[in-house]
Amino acid sequence: RSSWLLLAPLLSPPVPVVTAPPCSLCPEGAHRFQWIGNLVPEFGISSSRVKVLSSPTEFYELLKAQIKTAKQRVVMASLYLGTGLLEQELVDCLEETLEKSLQAKGSSDLRVSILLDYTRGSRGRKNSRTMLIPLLQRFPEQVRVSLFHTPNLRGLLRLLIPERFNETIGLQHIKVYLFDDNVILSGANLSDLYFTNRQDRYVLLQDSPEIADFFSELVEAIGDVSLQLQRDDTVQMMEGMEHPYRGDKVTYCETANRRVMEVINAARTRQELLHAKTFHCSQQGSSLLSQTGPQAPGGLKPEPDTWIYPLIQMKPFGIQIDEMVTETLLTEAERDARIYLTTGYFNLTQAYMDLVLGTRAEYRILLASPEVNGFFGAKGVAGAIPAAYVHIERQFYSQVCYLHQQQRVRLQEYSRAGWTFHAKGLWLYLAGSDLPCLTLIGSPNFGYRSVHRDLEAQVAIVTENKALQQQLHQEQEQLYLCSGVVSSSTFEQPNRYVKLWVKLVTPLIKNFF
Fold first, then answer.
1. Is residue 368 a part of any domain in this protein?
2. Hey, what long-range contacts does 196-199 have (CB within 8 A, 24 or more apart)?
3. Please, which pLDDT band fits residue 421 given cuts at 50, 70 and 90?
4. What is the full DSSP assignment across 125-164?
5. What does the entry give for GO biological process (predicted)?
6. Of 267, 296, 329, which one is at a domain's C-terminal end?
7. Alpha helix (H) ranges present in 167-247?
8. Is residue 76 situated within a structural domain?
9. Final residue of a domain: which of 216, 248, 267?
10. Considering the domain boundaries, does residue 25 fall inside one?
């Protein structure tokens, strides 16, 4: 019976699709993407500060190491925190670091802020909340736990939809892990699978205070419009803040939009002033250099060769920057450019699908085979979700064939025994180049949920540095190495059989997973 409650949200009106504005790209190299800076802050850094990680174990060990050495701040945003031994070890690391910080000074400078989703983090008797309450009880002045609750789950809908199914309405899906001035961007959650055998993507931005400040402020802004976990496992809103499901929805969404856009616009202003100051100093330095020789400007920083653009998508709040940038990238990709796009859950929005099928670039799309889908083997209705993805994949492949685009648009399925697949993002190779100059990495899956329902964040990393381009290329190759090309015969295999009821229901529920 509960599975049919999943259809209840279909009664709510659809959100209109907003297309990206036209843009003109500069003709040369990485700087052709500077138009993104018209929408979001642009952070110019040295490529030596960027490190691409490749495995769940490396990700987990880095999280622990960064927590142990943090002095000022630990900020972690995730869908949820798991309840196993590995997750407990992370919590223990936080506790030890907070304790050391207290002992060192008597009053600690270290602040810990954790942002999770309310519905996913409250699932079951032992959950993310019960894992974190001991920290709140022991360090009430230093620890903040915020639980985002979508404003779209309210009233009768909230009463009717059972646990787990209520997560289909909307989530806090951002994954950012920040330690002092070091930032990890990923699609991975804080759960044992993501530390062991669920393949994702991860990038570390080291010694990047401006980027760390931005994401710290972003998480704080979302935290301010979220429920605050209390020491007795109750939750309450900050004083004077509109409640996400009891208060007025329009007022709440306007407040949330204002808070998030303040962060984005303030960072843009700061970066523009910094760029102007840097440009002025570099002009003075060049003049001095021409007059007095190469040693004169000594202290000037090297010119950045890599640019970081944070892309935020929060359609419930009317923020759709990531959607606009992604659509523009797909639209403007030139003939003979190659786009490697990957998602653990292949369910592209109609707008993205039309762009892939109707533009000029070559596409190599990596998706999960049924056996490495995160829902494979799940109980109840959720167990049919991999079959629904097979159905969606087959429909898309049929369109590719119908349009005779098999050479330009190729699907590849990730398959690896004992593993699941959760990697998402894209790599863009300009025409004639063997290395990517741009990658998108973060939480979005390019599906309806990512665009319309959830809170998402990723970064566009644009680089001119060959060594970093090589790192990104190797990351892409390593993921695609575990894949096979999809053909008509793929769907004739016994494990690709899709039951009739799944085919009938998929169009009705595809916007919820």
1. yes
2. 196/56, 196/57, 196/60, 196/86, 197/56, 197/418, 197/419, 197/420, 198/56, 198/374, 198/419, 198/420, 198/421, 198/422, 199/56, 199/414, 199/416, 199/419, 199/420, 199/421, 199/422, 199/423, 199/479
3. very high
4. SS-HHHHHHHHHHH-TTTEEEEEE--TTS-HHHHHHSPTT
5. cardiolipin biosynthetic process
6. 267
7. 192-196, 209-224
8. yes
9. 267
10. no
Say if residue 165 is in the same domain as residue 314.
no
Compute CA 18 distance to the chain's CA centroid, rounded to the nearest angstrom.
20
Two tokens at 423? Answer: 């990697």
Write the pLDDT tens digit of every residue in 303-335.
Answer: 899 999 999 999 999 999 999 999 999 999 999
Query: Looking at the structure, do residues 246 and 323 belong to the same domain, yes or no?
Result: no
Strands 456-463 and 483-485 come out as unpaired
pLDDT at 378 over 90: no
Give me the percent of the chain exceeding a pLDDT of 70.
88
- Give a yes or no: residue 137 inside a domain: yes
First-to-last alpha carbon distance for the chain, in angstroms, is 19
> Are residues 398 and 253 both part of a single domain?
no
Give the tens place of pLDDT for each residue, 437-454: 999 999 999 999 999 999
Tokens at 274, concatenated:
């910094």
Q: Assess whether 330 and 469 both reside in one domain.
A: yes
Helix (H) or strand (E) holding 407: none
Cβ pair 6, 153 in contact under 8 A = no
pTM for the model stands at 0.90
Other Cβ atoms within 10 Å of 18 Cβ, number: 14
Looking at the structure, do residues 392 and 332 belong to the same domain, yes or no?
yes
Q: Are strands 202-205 and 182-186 parallel, antiparallel or unpaired?
A: antiparallel
Angle, CA of 309, 422 and 78, to the nearest 5°: 60
Contact present, 498 and 401 (Cβ < 8 Å): no
The boundaries of the domain holding residue 488 are: 304-511
What is the tally of structural domains in the chain?
2
**Residue ranges with strand state E in 73-117:** 73-77, 111-117
Check whether residue 316 and residue 404 sit in a common domain: yes
- State the Rg of the chain over Cα: 23
Phi-psi region of 432 (alpha: psi -120 to 50; beta: other; left: phi over 0): left
395 vs 388: CA distance, rounded Å: 11
> Please, is 438 exposed, middle or buried when counting C-beta atoms within 10 Å of its C-beta (0-12, 13-18, 19+)?
buried
DSSP structure class, residue 238: P
Which domain CATH number covers 336? 3.30.870.10
Identify the bridge partners of residue 454 per DSSP, sorted by sequence position: none
What SS3 state is found at 228? strand
Q: Are residues 376 and 505 in the same domain?
A: yes
**Running DSSP on this structure, what letter comes out for residue 453?**
I
The residue ranking higher by pLDDT, 20 or 404, is 404
Residue positions annotated with a catalytic role = 173, 175, 180
Q: Are 98 and 135 spatial neighbours (Cβ–Cβ below 8 Å)?
A: yes
